[in-house]
Design goal:
Layout (H helix, E strand, L loop, with lengths): L2 E8 L5 E12 L2 E14 L2 H10 L2 H11 L13
Antiparallel strand pairs: 1-2, 2-3
């Protein structure tokens, strides 16, 4: 039995994106969802661009970068002490 992953890029703006990951198996020709939805939000910062590149397949990452452009536009969060 093979587990397939469905990825949805949701609320994609120039500042951020929400990524929804869902897993499915095929039973008798029908896709059946297994496990919980996993949703993560990413901001258009240098750090989160690198995380996104690690987390997403190349074609999804490229789709986000097509909207975000070549340069991060959100400042990195400052450290809270």
């Amino acid at each position: 039995m093979e587990i397939k992953e469905k990825i949805t890029l949701d609320m994609l703006t120039t500042d951020s994106v929400s990524v929804l990951k869902q897993q499915y198996i095929t039973i008798d020709g029908a896709d059946v969802k297994v496990g919980e939805n996993v949703r993560n939000a990413y901001m258009n910062t240098q750090t989160e661009r690198e995380l996104l590149k690690f987390e997403l397949p190349e074609e999804y990452y490229n789709a986000v970068i097509a909207v975000w452009g070549d340069t991060p536009i959100v400042d990195e969060p400052s450290e809270v002490i």
